[in-house]
What we know:
single chain, mainly alpha, globular, Polymerase
Amino acid sequence: MSIKPLEFLDKVTTAAFALTIAFSFCGLFLVPSGQSILSNLLVASGVLGLLNYFIGGKKDVLFTDRRLIWVFIFYAVVILINRIIHGDQYGVMRSLFYVSVFSLLMPRKKILLSVGCIAILVGGIGLGLLSLWQYENGIVRVEGFTNAILFSQAALTLVILNWCLFIRARKICWMKIGSLVALSASLLALYLSQSRGVWLALGAVIGILIIYKSLYKPFKYTFVALLLVALAGGIYQTNTIVQGRMAEAVSDMKGIEGGTYYSSWGLRVVAWESAWLGFLESPLIGVGTDGFTVVKEQQISRGLVSPLVMDPALAHAHSQYMQNLIIRGVVGILALMIFLFYPMKLIVEKAGWGSPYTMIPLSFAISALSDVPFEHQNTLYLYALSLVFCWCAIEFNMEKKAS
């Protein structure tokens, strides 16, 4: 039986969207140049989606509530305007437009949600296996095919997503077991990446959830909190990696107090001071990428900051908040707050405060204190597409309840 051309177009479109979703969670951080491959997949899916919508007449797209997508478009437009004025990250702007078009045209088919669930399971296990392979081959601080901080953010995101799957699975035994295995593998990747900022984000996510749950079941979650504190203490006492990273942090802090800044946290302090002073010079719209290096050179010549600010490791402000302040000013920091916290508000409206989906933006908000996840395409893609997956799960769940 032959397939009509428009039916074939619909099937190809669905397959392209499914492949893109799958790669987002089980390919982006598992192969070299993952962000470039994902960009191409998003473009191909978007083009097919447009053809399927306008020529194929398939107008039943996934999202009826598109507020989340408008958040992506808004942040992209802010960066576009800033780029026109005095330079900004083209890759960031382009990536957000790709995700927005992809999300607007996603077919309303449950197979896409199922593919996403399986990809999250495979991706979590894949990150664990990749990190173990790298560690066994002499890479003490595993980094995937990017760097340790971005890799750790990916690991934390897949921890949360697999946790979402575990809760969603209910009586589906294989998914419960699979999500626990994938969650454990992602935790291993997070541990071996040795990123203290993302470790802090994990601790904050767990702490906030326990505090929220304890409002309803105080005795149970007080016991859980004490158990986790004891577990954390045991890990610290017996684990040389954790002890070493904490000792380095203490050493960095003592060095900063003594005026020595050539260390991981010392360089961050220099970068933050420079970013703040740069923001004060141009508070409304920042100095843009065109003025970033120039401002630092002027600060050095005036004796305002340490010459270490020109260290190659400080190609950015080492804090997303500070980065937005110096590059994009007040407009940029407000846009960042909307980009981070408005999706959380939307998820709370749909799924309640207790939903683990809210932990995706929260984890990025905390990690962004000491790094710039939204200046890198791979972590930006992961953030945006993770929210799209959560929004998709929420919409189908609401549809199921309504029926």
